[in-house]
Amino acid sequence: MLLEVSNVSVWYDKAMLINNVSMGVDQGELVSLVGPNGAGKSTLLRTITGLVAWEKDLTKRSSHGEIKLEGQITFDGERIEKVPAHEIVRRGLILAPERRRPFKEMTVIDNLMVGAYLIRDKANIEENLEKVYQLFPVLKDRSHQISGTLSGGEQQMLAVGRALMSNPKLLCIDEPSTGLAPMLRAEVFQRIKEISSLGITVLLVEQEVTTVFKMATRNYVLSAGKIIAEGKGDKLLENELLRKTYLGM
Known about the structure:
By secondary structure, this protein is of the alpha/beta class. The protein contains 11 helices and 10 strands. Helix content is 39%, strand content 26%. It has a 6-stranded mixed β-sheet, with helices on both faces. A 4-stranded antiparallel β-sheet has the order 2-1-4-5.
């Protein structure tokens, strides 16, 4: 597997946020992680991409509660649970974070170039930029516009485009449809399908279950920090208890 998460748990003080989670993503897959609000989906993504370990180091120098991690994370054949977040990015495990978070005072093109800061090959950067512009033509049209003036949908496209500039082997996308109108949401999901069709492996965290289950190769359902089900979307939807209790359908 490209990504393998084995028996991972995360505590904040005495509260267990992630409870003995094991999951995996194969090369070329589009895998979804779904579940209700507060299930721990974003925490799990931050753990996989090294950000929780970074937060754990910060708590050693502050009065905040202690963060504790256990378990093993393997990416592209190597253990990464103790690897710094910036090195994880260098290895090709990239996060497009929840709620977009562009550098709002910077232009669109400057935001995209931030995504390429670890790349030294100018031809590679230009190639990635052209790929982003083909996927998201609006970003080319608005390349010199200040990012904070973009619409919510455009900012989401910018967040994904910025992540694509980093040469991802695995692109983790956190809640891309949050706060978007239905038409924009459909457009963002269509672009994610196109990214997957380019051969980029995707781990997608979402609450829009109906759409995501149609897109994904496989799905994991997370509730209260635990994986409670996994499989293909049509099979998961056959389970009435799962639909009503955990998927809100």
